[in-house]
Each structure stands twice: as C-alpha cells, then as structure tokens.
Specification:
By secondary structure, this protein is of the alpha+beta class. It has a 6-stranded antiparallel sheet. Strand 5 and strand 6 form a beta hairpin. Helix 7 packs parallel to helix 10 and helix 8 crosses helix 10. It is globular, with a radius of gyration of 18 Å. This is LADA_0H18844g1_1.
Amino acid sequence: MAWSRGLTGVRNVFGVGRSVARYRSKTAELQSEVPQQYLQSLTKLRYSSYLESYNSFVLLRWHSGKYKTSQKDLLWRSFCQDISALFPPKNDCDPLVAPSPVFFGTPLNVPTMDQLLGSDPISDESECFCSFQHLSSQDSAVALRKYLETATKKSKYGPRFTPIAVGMNLSSSQSPATSHIQPLLEESFPVYRDLNYEKLLDIAKRIQPADSDPMKAQVKKLLETLAEIGLSIPRRTKRDGWLLFTSDVKP
C-alpha cells in the first residue's frame, strides 16, 4: 500500500521498529526515560541525514482550527496516502521513476531544521508536518508539482495540510531538474531576494514552449505552481546548496 512505503520511511526517521510504531504508549514510556538532550541530538542527526540523502522537502501547516486535534493523525495518514498515489511505484531498474515521498510520522521540530539549514525561521507554526523526496528526473518534477496542487486543492471542507515552504538542494550533482532552476533564477536575479509572484512567473515564462528539453518544460510548470500557491520568495540558506521557497506572508 502507498502508506506502507511512507510509513517505512517514518520508521527510518525515528529509528523505531514496526512493533514500537504500532504501540505508541511504549514509545512514550521509552522517551520519558531518555534524557531530553539525547533526544534532541538524535533528532538533529536524523534530520541532517535526510538533508544529505534527499534533495527536496515540503513543509506543511496543519489546519488545527478547522479540524479536531483527535483527527490529526488520521487526516495526516489519509493525506499521505493521497500524495503517495500520485507517485509511480518504485522501480529500482528505472532511475526515471519517482519513488513516493518519505513522510514524517510526527510534526517537525522546526527550530532544529532552522538550525541545520542556517536559515531564518521557516515558520512560526507550532505544528508543521514534513516530507522528503528526490527531485531528480522529469517524472519526479511532475509528481512534486501534482503534490503541491493536490495539497492546495479547494474543497468544501478546506485544506487539511497546506504547503508553507519547499526546500530544494540546487547543488545535487545527479539532478537535472534542480540544475535547471538555479540558472533560471540567476539569469534575472543574481541574489535570491525580493521575488514576488509576478517576477517568479516571468522567470518561468523565459522557458519557451518550443524548447526541446522536456525537463525544462517541467521546471517551468513547477515554478509556476510555486508562484500560484504563494511560495514565491526564494531564500538561500547557509547550508550549501539549499534554497527555500516561502511566502512573504506569515501563515
């Protein structure tokens, strides 16, 4: 099942097995016996590992005012299933197939992520969820775009989780997708700042429709989607290669 692929990644993040993930009370008891400083160090180590292993992440805000807190875990699981369904099944023989994202089972420790990225606070929200994924092919660029579009799709109940930041590692040597983004931004804006919706769309439109490179066409659509959902402010971080697309309006 789609969720099982994501759940496996969740277990890897926190270093827990199937039985511990299933019985949360046991996990809580274990955490209460472990010094907080050790847990913080472990969290930092895990986050750093994922920043090294993946070249993109999505940070999402939980709409706590619209739904009951008791529904949070169930809604997050349902959301992860919906997003995983957008990604083709993993195929180790085909590097162009985009594997589903790795979803974190619990809210992200945002201050720890800020520290690792060396960035200004990504969000003031107390509960943000996160997924990591590879942006390394045409298929993965399409899947990430659909991910963002699905998360912001309007419904009568409103969104469950809204993207508030997208991180990309532009120094990833094996990613033709991210290698297109940096030159496009640098072409018009040598310093990543003060980019608004119109400017980001203008950058995307610099890619001509008749361009023979299909990857560039998908990068164009991805940049357009980022602008359309309000993540139109690219910010460089102190961590080598990482760029954040955020909103100029605090959620």
